[in-house]
Amino acid sequence: MLSRIVTGVAALLMFVILNPQMSVMTGDLVAGRLDESSFRRAIVWLVGTLLAQVLLIPAASLIVFVAEKL
Questions:
Q1: Where are the domains of the chain?
Q2: Which of 27, 35, 55, 61 is most enclosed, with most CB atoms within 10 A?
Q3: For the whole prediction, is pTM greater than 0.70?
Q4: Residue 8: is its pLDDT beyond 80?
C-alpha cells in the first residue's frame, strides 16, 4: 500500500514538473532559441529521472517490507 502511494506521488510530480519543461524546451529548440547541447543535457537529465522512477518501485517495496517487519 505504501509503495503505491510513493510511486503515485512520484509519477504525479514528474507529470506536473517535468513534462511542461520538456515541451517548452522542445519548442525553443525548434524555434532556434535553444542550442542543441543544452537540449541534449536536458534529455540526459530526463533519462536519469526515468531511471530513478524505475528504481523507486523496488526501493519503495523494500521500505514497505522493512516497515512490516518492524
A1: 2-69
A2: 61
A3: no
A4: yes
Distance CA 22, CA 28 (A): 10
Q: Which three cell numbers stand for residue 3?
A: 509503495
Give the C-alpha separation, 43 to 47, whole Å. 6
Query: Which SS3 state, helix, strand or coil, does residue 32 take?
Result: coil
> What's the DSSP call for residue 48?
H
Q: Which amino acid is at 31?
A: A
Amino acid at 41: R
Cβ atoms of 39 and 29 closer than 8 Å: yes
Cell numbers at 15, concatenated: 507529470
